[in-house]
Amino acid sequence: MLDGFEILTTSGVVLWSKAYAPVSASLINGFIKDVFIEEKLLPGGVAADDTSAAQHPSYKKEQYTLRWASVKELGLIFVVRMPAASFLAK
User: Fold this and answer.
1) Is the pLDDT of residue 50 over 60?
2) How far apart are CA 63 and CA 12, in angstroms?
3) Largest Cα–Cα distance of the chain, in whole Å?
């Protein structure tokens, strides 16, 4: 079940957002801060912007799981937000 979709710039500006369930802005802000601004390393020692979309691990916060894909050429990040239980089969 999809709870939301956001398009961000690589500098962290939200260009477009569609929410199907209410959520706090701190979820996306935390995602931007933890994954892109602070450039925390992902499992395997790979920086967030150096992996393909298929290799991005899930970002889990509160009761949500976020998956993302980045397009360096356009400077955009596409983020899908869903309940954490949606990825139990993964």
Assistant:
1) no
2) 22
3) 34
At residue 77 the predicted structure's pLDDT band, cuts being 50, 70 and 90, is: very high
DSSP 62-77: TTEEEEEEEETTTTEE
Residues 84, 66 contacting (CB under 8 angstroms): no
pLDDT higher than 90, residue 31: no
The tokens for 16 are 């477009």
- Helix/strand/coil percentages in the chain, nearest 5: 25, 35, 40
Question: Amino acid identity of 12?
Answer: G
Distance CA 26, CA 71 (A): 24
pLDDT per residue as tens digits for the range 3-15: 999 999 988 899 9
Predicted TM-score (pTM) of this structure: 0.74
User: What does the alpha-carbon distance between residue 90 and residue 74 come to, in Å, rounded to a whole number?
Assistant: 29
